[in-house]
C-alpha cells in the first residue's frame, strides 16, 4: 500500500515530506496537534491548541467595538448595531 500511495502522490505532482508524512494506513494518528483514534471513535485536541483558541477569542472580544453585538437568531447569525446616545 505504501508504494501505491507514494506513486499516487508523485503522479499528482506533489512531493511527500518523508519526515512528516504517514503513508501507511493506521487507525490512530496525530496531525497538526490533533489525535484521531478511529478504533474507539475518539478525537482529541491538545491542551495547547485549546488554550491558543481561548486566547484568540479573548483577543477578538477585546478588539470588537462595544456597539456591535453578534448573536444567533433562528439558526442564522445576525448582527445588531447599538446606537450610542
Strand order of the biggest β-sheet: 1-2-3
Mean residue pLDDT: 76
Q: Which consecutive residue ranges, at least 5 long each, have pLDDT under 50?
A: none
Give the overall shape.
elongated
The N- to C-terminal Cα distance equals: 68 Å
Short description:
The chain has 85 residues and is α+β, with helices and mostly antiparallel strands. The chain is 32% helix and 28% strand. A three-stranded antiparallel sheet has the order 1-2-3.
Describe this entry's structure for a reader:
There is one protein chain. The chain is of the alpha+beta class and about 80 residues long. It has one domain. The chain is about 30% helix and about 30% strand. The protein is elongated, with a radius of gyration of 22 Å. The termini are far apart. The model has no long low-confidence stretch (mean pLDDT about 75).
Core attributes:
single chain, 85 residues, alpha+beta, 3-stranded antiparallel beta sheet, 2 helices, 28% strand, elongated
List the helices and strands and how they pair.
Blueprint: H1 2-11, E1 28-31, E2 34-37, E3 42-45, H2 47-63, E4 68-73, E5 76-81
Antiparallel strand pairs: 1-2, 2-3, 4-5
